[in-house]
Write a structure and sequence with these properties.
Length: about 750
């Protein structure tokens, strides 16, 4: 692989203009095509094989329009000045209802002036709209057009807002200033790292090209696969981080070679043959970790995983082709436009080498202190609170948040997440007056936590009955999930009770995640360790790397628990507190974390953490090949990569922190978790814990059983330090304990 990458890098350096034009044309074509032929995004958050999915399927069998996904829209009407039953207000609302009945795809409109349509305070009412024949993926646009039809009520001084009834896949995350902020912060770090403006712009440019290409592919794939609306933002977040980092590692190596007098094209060839191999393997670990999410049994999560992997593939490809092309075109001008008083990343790494030597002299004390600090950072993870994240935590002032608060005030917190109960009957019934239907209704009504049960509705076949249940609890309350389970446990002869709706779906998602998490973690750790084994032919190093990455994950989950579950600073990251909160409550309040977020974070963080492990081990291995001194090679490896890894980590942290400014709570969660994990990984783990353990292990770091050494392919990810003393022949494998 070293020779292959070297030839590729040399060719790209010699044909820089061709490579540059090809990438620009490809990025423009892909991005332009995805914009012109915009594919629909999917709102399908179904989980095959779950009870909620079975209830959803039964809802579509003869219950009439509006019972399929996206078939119902609700508007909350609020009168701040008096009751909705006052004549003038009632006329205005009824006029709005009449206009809604004339809208396309609307088959039924329920007026607030029906039984249960107006709250007990008479100031809050609910308009229910059932539709058919519409595009379920465009429910947001349809809701906006329906909202305009309610203008007569607004003209009478009433507030009319659409109630949010979406699933996690419905949340459309609009672009904002976070990408720009992240790129500017990354540029600032690169300027300090390299000391020249031209060098700093290369990683930014290549990352933007890779992100544009990746997003273009993702957009076009929306025509053939269900594409969640979060896909673009996740791909952008990860693509920017790894794209800039990979280019940074290559550029740093190239500038060091130029400083030693190596010709430009030869320097590029050597850079890609050695550091390029590290980039390929680092990207491979990220892709493996993300691909393992397909084993989670949650289609939405699986799609987010492999879609994000597309952005990583694009970052790797631009790093080993576009970066060499730009370096070949620029030549020595890569050091142009120097910034005064900045030495840049090619400056001496004596400080980091000194740290490595300091660690090597006291490995046990460093190991103990590092474990103690990491344990303290991970301890809050025990308080991690998982659960649905309802619109009560949405952006203050948004329509969905306003509708949520009005619904909770007028009809109780459970009205924001009603349960849909569908019971399969043992025999056909004529209508809802049948005794078995009455038994089902009373059994559901007797469940603790069920505040209101609607009138039963029997489907056309007479074999299923549908009930809508409003609980005493908000959708984010864990007790709402208990009500779901209790209803499902109802035992009536021949009757099968299924529960659907948002709360039930997220409850099933949480159960599925808990069931599949050990499998996903095991596969990710095993495959990543195997990839490292192929790269370095050192089983102990591979196992140790996997363990170290799990340690950094503990710190990330500890930070998530501290900020969101415990509530220390949740208000400071932009989460809006519940209405009526005091000043202290506005800063410190608990926010649940969606059940699938930890697994997604695990996959992303495990892959990203492995990046730095690969780059550090590559440098240590190269040093060990030269002089066989373990402690010395650790110090030299840390010295040659410490400054670059720190710069790369700062860039990732800056990008992820910028995304915390997004109003979407899911993006905030990822921003906090990723930023903390990368910061901890690049400092405590790579700067102290990994060097200390490598010093203590000694020659065992590179031990490999003879039988394993014979069967492993020689991929030579680390290559040779061709600019240094020639590498010694690879030593015979040593025995364990020697």
């Amino acid at each position: 692989m070293t020779r292959l990458l070297g030839r590729l890098g040399g060719w790209c350096a010699r044909h820089g203009r061709i490579v540059l034009v090809l990438w620009l044309v490809a990025a423009a074509a892909l991005m332009g095509g995805s914009l012109v032929f915009a594919a629909p995004t999917s709102n399908d958050a179904s989980i095959p094989g779950t009870d909620a999915q079975r209830a959803h399927d039964l809802m579509k069998t003869g219950f009439g329009p509006g019972y399929a996904a996206g078939g119902t829209v609700q508007f909350v009407v609020y009168s701040a000045d008096g009751p909705l039953t006052e004549d003038a207000r009632k006329r205005a609302v009824e006029q709005a209802v009449d206009r809604l009945r004339t809208m396309p795809h609307v088959v039924q409109v329920d007026s607030p002036y029906r039984v249960g349509g107006i709250a007990s305070n008479l100031q809050i009412g609910l308009i229910g709209i059932r539709m058919e024949g519409h595009d379920g993926n465009k429910i947001a646009q349809l809701t906006q057009s329906l909202s305009k039809a309610a203008d007569p009520a607004r003209a009478a001084g009433l507030e009319v807002v659409p109630a949010d009834s979406s699933t996690p896949a419905d949340k459309e995350i609009k672009t904002g200033p976070s990408e720009i902020i992240g790129v500017l912060c990354a540029l600032l770090v690169l300027v300090f790292a390299f000391g020249t403006l031209v060098a700093a712009l290369i990683p930014i440019f290549t990352a933007l090209v890779s992100v544009a290409s990746g997003l273009g592919v993702i957009g076009l794939l929306g025509w053939v696969v269900d594409m969640p609306k979060q896909a673009g933002i996740m791909a952008t977040m990860i693509g920017l981080g790894v794209g800039i980092d990979y280019a940074l590692f290559l550029l740093s190596r190239h500038r060091r070679l130029l400083a030693r007098g190596v010709p430009v094209v030869e320097s590029v060839r050597r850079t890609v043959s050695s550091s390029g191999g590290a980039v390929v393997f680092a990207g491979g670990t990220v892709i493996i970790a993300l691909s393992a999410l397909m084993l989670a049994g949650f289609p939405l999560l699986a799609t987010l995983g492999w879609v994000t992997g597309i952005s990583v593939v694009a970052a790797v490809l631009t790093s080993v082709t576009l970066v060499p092309a730009l370096l070949g075109l620029l030549g020595h001008r890569v050091n142009a436009l120097k910034v005064p008083f900045l030495k840049g990343a090619d400056a001496s790494g004596d400080g980091w080498a000194g740290l490595g030597s300091w660690v090597a002299r006291r490995p046990w004390r460093v190991l103990f202190a590092s474990v103690l600090v990491l344990g303290a950072l991970a301890a809050p993870a025990l308080a991690l609170k998982l659960g649905p994240l309802d619109e009560g935590y949405g952006t203050q002032g948004s329509e969905s948040r306003r509708a949520y608060e009005l619904m909770a005030t007028g009809f109780g917190p459970g009205a924001n997440g009603p349960l849909i109960v569908v019971a399969e009957l043992p025999s056909k019934v004529a209508d809802s007056g049948d005794p078995i239907v009455d038994h089902v209704t009373r059994a559901v009504d007797d469940v603790e936590g069920a505040a209101h049960v609607s009138e039963p509705k029997v489907n056309t076949s007479g074999r299923s009955v549908l009930l809508q249940v409003v609980t005493d609890y908000a959708p984010s309350d864990a007790r709402a999930a208990e009500v779901v389970r209790d209803i499902r446990d109802i035992a009536l002869p021949g009757v099968q009770v299924h529960v659907g709706g948002e709360v039930a779906g997220l409850t099933d998602a949480g159960d599925r995640m808990a069931e599949r998490t050990p499998l996903v973690i095991g596969v990710v750790v095993l495959l990543s360790a195997l990839l490292l084994l192929l790269a370095f032919r050192a089983p102990i190093v591979a196992i140790k790397a996997a363990v170290m990455n799990l340690v950094s994950l503990g710190a990330a989950f500890g930070a998530l628990a501290l900020v969101f579950s415990i509530g220390v600073g949740s208000g400071l990251v932009g989460m809006d507190p519940p209405a009526g909160s005091s000043y202290v409550q506005a800063i410190f309040f608990s926010v649940p974390i969606e059940s699938y977020v930890p697994l997604m974070l695990f996959a992303v963080l495990f892959g990203l953490s492995m990046d730095y492990e690969v780059f550090l081990l590559t440098a240590v291995r190269q040093a060990y090949q030269r002089h066989r001194g373990n402690a010395r090679s650790v110090a030299q490896g840390l010295g040659s990569t410490g400054r670059v890894i720190t710069s790369a980590a700062l860039i990732m942290v800056a990008v992820f922190v910028a995304f915390i400014a997004y109003p979407d709570p899911l993006v905030k969660t990822f921003g906090v978790g990723l930023a903390v994990a990368i910061a901890v990984d690049a400092t405590i783990i790579r700067g102290f814990l990994v060097p200390a353990t490598m010093v203590l292990l000694g020659r065992l770091n590179w031990w490999c059983p003879r039988w394993l050494d014979r069967i492993l392919p020689n991929l030579s990810v680390e290559g040779h330090e061709e600019d240094e003393t020639p590498a010694l022949p690879r030593p015979e494998p040593v025995k364990a304990g020697v």
